[in-house]
Specification:
It is built from 21 helices and no strands. With 529 residues, the chain is mostly helical. α9 packs across α11, α13 crosses α14 and α16 runs antiparallel to α17. The longest helix is centred in the first third of the chain and has 40 residues.
Length: 529
């Protein structure tokens, strides 16, 4: 009964540790997750910069899995190239070593201070309160580790159990245990932290603990592999590189461990510090070796996965430069308008095609395009907030407002297309299939909308402008007719598809209005030009 109580107390403490680490990571991402993404997306072609960024980000959010998933999502969005992402993934392993160092040097003794500080900060009615939960969970992580340590301390009295646990085992077995446990909890920091606590308690020897933390590096790649299932080939390459990098590091060090593992006995005086140091050296050396060999490594990934192409062409996003003139900004934004408009048109085409055909592949393609457009929207808004500092003259102010309004309407168009996509998701979630009459109605409406898109894009003079007006009238007539038809069909209680399609018509009307507003602004711009 005594050992059952000890086991329950230990398991509870481990659960609290996992809970604390997960929420600490979430709080840090909530506070400045977007800044982390921008830091990662700003990685240059120098692999060493990517390594440093990956290490820094992971040190702060305390999750190499989160860093890897963020990086892979940016690769999928076309923001990062596959080769640039590899350095960040290498660096993420270095960032995880900070947990081991803090535990080894007994930060757990200060955990109550951070818990109390975080609690009172969160109660304040000031900006400092946003850091309260993050500090609270930071202390909670190490406090729960102390609970793990305290709950297991009675086992030290069992000489037989201690002899079994501390006796050197097959390192391959310990490595597999570390990999499986990490894959289960999806955090190498959990495995490493527990390994160091057990080492501090004298419950496992260094000969068993070292392969355990090596296995954790392999297990942490599972999260990245889960994330890439519907992503581009470049994102899948990044996930594979994460696995091969961690596996390669283990294969480099396992022979050393097999030959010289018995010499770890000499570090018995302070085994936790020794384990944390080995963890640091293991990850740093592995990152350095693979960074030096990054070109042949990425070629190997290309050979395994094939060259591959992204499933859609990404946009050229503007990059702010404080030294550039307003004319340069204007030229850059004017050039980006037609490209973004064409991209919106294709988004609409894919979304409506997913409704008409009901193919899952087309639906996934639409989701990826819309997710990427969300990212583009944030990038352009960030660019506008920076570029406004270059406006000096009243005429420049007018041009800047005009450009901002045009982009704003484009992103409002994007919002309406997302609403149409949500209408399709509503059909799928309720297992509703549209009857042939509504499919024909949808097809006709989407054809006229695409024609309106085309005529707006082709507008270069007054003649083209009149053609766009004609398309707008035809589209409005089609929407009105469809609404009248739907109104009569709503009397039929067996037609569940009608109710969902009324939302589609509402969103189509909003989209048409936003397209008309964009067309009007485009005409004003042409008259000025």
């Amino acid at each position: 009964m005594e050992y059952l109580n000890i086991s329950l107390a230990a398991i509870t403490a481990v659960v609290l540790f996992v809970f604390g680490l997960e929420h600490f990571s979430q709080e840090i991402e909530r506070i400045s997750g977007e800044r982390f993404r921008k830091s990662i997306s700003a990685a240059t072609k120098l692999p060493v910069v990517g390594v440093l960024l990956g290490a820094l980000v992971t040190m702060v959010i305390q999750s190499s899995s989160a860093t890897s998933v963020i990086t892979i999502s940016l690769v999928n969005a076309g923001v990062l190239s596959f080769k640039n992402s590899v350095g960040i993934i290498f660096g993420s392993n270095i960032g995880t070593t900070i947990t081991a160092q803090l535990v080894a040097f007994k930060l757990t003794n200060f955990a109550p201070f951070f818990i109390v500080l975080g609690f009172f900060l969160s109660l304040l009615n000031s900006r400092a309160s946003i850091f309260g939960k993050a500090i609270f969970y930071f202390g909670f992580v190490f406090f729960s580790l102390q609970l793990v340590s305290d709950s297991l301390s009675p086992l030290q009295q069992n000489t037989y159990l201690m002899s079994v646990l501390t006796e050197p085992q097959n390192p391959i077995f310990a490595l597999l245990i570390g990999a499986l446990f990490t894959a289960l909890v999806q955090s190498s920091s959990v495995t490493t932290g527990l390994a160091i606590v057990f080492t501090q308690q004298g419950m496992i020897g260094l000969e068993n603990a070292v392969p355990l933390i090596m296995g954790a590096n392999i297990g942490t790649t599972v999260t990245a592999f889960i994330a890439v299932f519907n992503m581009d080939i470049a994102a899948k390459k990044a996930a594979l590189s994460h696995l091969l990098f961690n596996l390669g590091g283990v294969l480099m060090f396992i022979p050393i461990l097999l030959v010289y593992g018995h010499e770890l006995e000499q570090y018995r005086s302070d085994p936790a510090v020794a384990l944390a140091t080995i963890h640091l050296v293991f990850n740093v050396v592995t990152s350095i070796v693979f960074t030096l060999a990054i070109t042949p490594f990425t070629r190997l990934i290309d050979y395994i996965m094939g060259e591959g192409k992204m499933d859609f062409e990404r946009l050229n996003l503007p990059v702010f430069d404080q030294s550039e003139s307003f004319e340069s900004v204007k030229e850059k934004l004017d050039k980006g308008l037609p490209e973004l408009f064409d991209f919106m048109q294709e988004n609409y085409n894919v979304v409506t095609l997913s409704i008409e055909t009901n193919f899952r592949g087309i639906l996934h393609a639409a989701e990826k395009r819309l997710q990427y457009t969300d990212f583009v929207k944030k990038e352009f808004l960030h660019y506008f907030s920076s570029a406004v500092t270059l406006v000096n003259e009243p005429a420049e102010s007018k041009e800047f407002i005009r450009l901002f309004n045009q982009y704003d309407y484009l992103f409002q168009i994007h919002d309406s297309i997302k609403d149409l996509h949500e209408a399709k998701r509503g059909l799928d979630e309720r297992f509703i299939e549209m009857k042939s009459d509504l499919l024909l109605m949808t097809r006709s409406l989407s054809s006229l909308t695409l024609e309106y898109f085309h005529d707006i894009a082709a507008t270069k003079d007054e003649v083209d402008s009149e053609q766009a007006k004609t398309s707008a009238k035809a589209l409005q007539h089609e929407i009105d007719e469809a609404n009248r038809t739907l109104l009569s069909l709503m009397l039929d209680s067996t037609r569940a598809d009608v109710g969902v399609l009324t939302n589609f018509m509402t969103y189509s009307q909003r989209l048409k209005d936003k397209l008309s507003n964009y067309s009007r602004l485009q005409k004003i711009a042409l008259q000025r030009g």
